[in-house]
Amino acid sequence: MVQKFDAAAAVGGIGSSGWARGRLPALARLGGPLAVYAVFALLIGLPLALVLLQAVVPGLFAVDGAQGLFSAEPLARVFSSPYIAGSILHSLELGLLAALTTTMLGGAFAVLVQRCDIPLRGPLSLVPWLVFLTPSYLKALAWVLLMSSGGYLAQLGLLPPWLGASFFGLAGLVFVHTLSLFPLAAFIIGSALAGLGSELEDAARLSGAGPLRIWLRVNGPLLAPAIVLSFIATFAEVLSDFGLASTIARMSSFGVLTYGIYAAASDYPVDFPAAGAQALVLLALVLLVVVADRLLRRRADPRLISGRARPARRYRLGAWRWLAFAMALLVAFLALILPLGAIAVRALTSTLGNGLAPDNFTLANLGAALSLHTAANEGLMRSLFYAGFAAVIASTLALLLSAQLDRSSPVMRTAVLGLSLGAVAIPGIVLGFGYILVWNRLPGFRDWPFPHYGDGSLLVMGYVAAALPYCLVVILSAVGQLAPSLTDAARISGVGAVRRLISVTLPLILLSVVTAFLLTFIRTVFELPMSQMLIPQSGPPAPTLILKLFSHDRDGLACAIALAAMAAAGGAAALIWYPLKRFIAFGRPQGTSAASGGPA
Fold first, then answer.
1. Angle at Cα 32 formed by Cα 28 and Cα 37, nearest 5°?
2. Exposure winner among 175, 207, 270, 389, fewest CB in 10 A?
3. What is the pLDDT of residues 71-87, one digit of tens each?
4. How far apart are CA 79 and CA 450, in angstroms?
């Protein structure tokens, strides 16, 4: 009835006032979708478009005058350069080998934890999450401390010289990538394994098939799509990685595409066409991987859960379970305990050469990282402040966009979700290079006072752009679970849109919003590509400072900053997450559904 009254009033309006009453609701309906697209265009679309355009219009940002002529010269120069062409081949070789080994290790770990009766399955299931949250460049720095000729393993007599020499190359990169990315494969394959019931295995067992034949002929084909998806996702992650590219790969003179983009954008004078051409090649490779992933999900997605599915029973390994437990424990030791231990030991010692001697231990590095008015502490505080600020902006923006999308058409919602998932696949080094082009070279943007190139505000904006897709997916999934009747009842009662969002929607999805905030905060504290590409004039953030100190043989202070950053980020997340989770659980009446807020 209210809608009919509004329509009649709009039609019956006289002159300009009637026109305004008829057009304003339409403009209001268009304003929300336009705002959503504008946010994505400014944060992600425009920087990415300039990167692609720079690769084919090399004179677009020429110092002596812009030229809008298309040219394939930058791409031809990329493929004709032995070093850059070698970097492309190195990236492909490393990606294929690391994807293969990572998928094998992650799949085996998922099977051991989920389907075998090994001891301490609960604690072992947390290992992939802890490894996943540890930045790749910190793991790389830890393995440099362990595997170098004067490192800890050599001092303990556990490192043969031939092994230490062969580590700094393709073999070492594959090894560290495998230990760093196996959680991704474990998540993908483990989620498919969780839906694989026991009825097919029971039927095969009754037919006389042994365990090996069951896995080769029954479970293997059913898990094949998840295995291939794991391979594709890991391959894309290795192609886009900048942490190992700027540490082990650089030290080994093993050129890869991500470091080539950074080198071209950091040299003086900046070679924008070369950086853009390499970014175009990297984006094309990642795009092929994403398309293959989409096609595989559409064509080969077996439905493993049915109404008659029975939970899969765990394999009783007998005495072999201790060997399986030792293998899982070895993975946890190599992927998590040993690297973090190396960082902690180096942060608490004066020199690497004196090793674990009692008189070598000191608190000087931690004191420099935690003392006020020091460069190390300023870099640490700068990163924590930027991360907190970016997390607030990203989670708030994602909440507003999610509320708008929840009232939008299914087409709009699908389009934005597609943009978000596609933005996740964009390498951070490419997005950072795009921000340089927009805010340093593009007329109309380079003169903006806020954000401004060389200022911390642009770095925060880059952090928000990198984190927004993750926040939007997390919060939008929670908003989609709310019953429309909740907001409809508030709307009928005369509650405005902002008040409905704060009083109705936010309390029901608070845990998801806080989850998005904390994930963004932890991820941003250690965000390396954006930090390297958009260093503020006020000083570098912690990730850039860590790499700079490590390259100048001040690895003790670098490890102290990393240790303090991990403790601060993890401690802050724990202090926020656990009390809030207990408060929400305590305040929710029994029998109340978290999704809809009504009776279960």
1. 140
2. 207
3. 888 888 888 888 888 99
4. 38
- Largest CA-CA distance found in the chain, in angstroms, rounded: 92
Sole residue written with tokens 């009254």:
5
From 167, 193, 171, 179, select the one nearest 105 (Cα to Cα): 179
When mean pLDDT is compared across 238-247, 450-459, 479-488, 523-532, the lowest value belongs to 479-488
Tokens 């109404």 belong to residue? 307
| DSSP collapsed to 3 states, 195-222 | CCCCHHHHHHHHCCCCHHHHHHHHHHHH
The DSSP letter of residue 599 is B
Length, in residues, of the chain = 600
Q: Specify whether the CB–CB gap between 13 and 21 falls below 8 A.
A: yes
Residues 369 and 398: their CA atoms lie apart, in Å, by: 34
What are the backbone angles phi and psi of residue 410, rounded to the nearest 5°?
A: -60, -30
Question: Would you say 430 and 283 are in contact if contact means Cβ atoms under 8 Å apart?
Answer: yes
Rounded to 5 degrees, φ, ψ at 207 are -85, 0
Q: Which residues of 412-441 are buried (b: 16+ CB within 10 A; e: fewer)?
A: bbebbbebbebbebbbbbbbbbbbbbbbbb
Q: Look at residues 435, 467, 429 and name the one whose alpha carbon lies nearest to residue 242.
A: 429
Residue 164 host element (H or E) = helix 161-167
What's the average model confidence in pLDDT over 237-257? 90
Hunting for tokens 């030991």 — which residue is that?
345
d(CA 262, CA 410): 39
Q: Can you read off the two tokens belonging to residue 398?
A: 């994602």
Residues 6+ apart with CB under 8 A from 258: 91, 239, 240, 241, 242, 245, 282, 427, 429, 529
DSSP bridge pairs for 599: 592
Q: Answer left, alpha or beta for residue 255, where phi above 0 means left and psi between -120 and 50 means alpha.
A: beta
Give CA angle at 424 (423, 425), nearest 5°.
90
End-to-end CA distance of the chain: 32
Over residues 5-38, the pLDDT tens digits come to 344 444 444 444 444 444 545 555 556 667 777 8
Residue keyed to tokens 């290992």: 127
CB 332 within 8 A of CB 127: yes
Nearest to 201 by CA among 35, 116, 314: 314
pTM of structure = 0.82
Residue 60 makes CB contacts below 8 A (sequence gap 6+) with: 50, 53, 54, 66, 67, 68
Main-chain phi, psi angles of 445, to 5 degrees: -105, -35
pLDDT band at residue 142 using 50, 70 and 90 as cut-offs? very high
Q: b or e along 132-167 (b: 16 or more beta carbons within 10 Å of the residue's beta carbon)? A: ebbbbbbbbbbbbbbbbeebbbbeeeebeeeebeeb
- Residue 230: partners with Cβ closer than 8 Å, 6 or more residues away: 102, 103, 106, 107, 184, 185, 188, 189
| Cα–Cα nearest to 521, from 443, 564, 573, 565 | 573
**Can you say how many angstroms the Cα of residue 459 is from the centroid of all Cα atoms in its chain?**
17
* Cα–Cα separations (whole angstroms), residue 403 to 398, 420, 598: 8, 16, 20
Q: Which of 77-81, 145-149, 177-181, 414-418 has the lowest mean pLDDT?
A: 414-418
Angle between helices 428-436 and 272-299 (to 10 degrees): 140
Tokens 């006289």, residue? Answer: 14
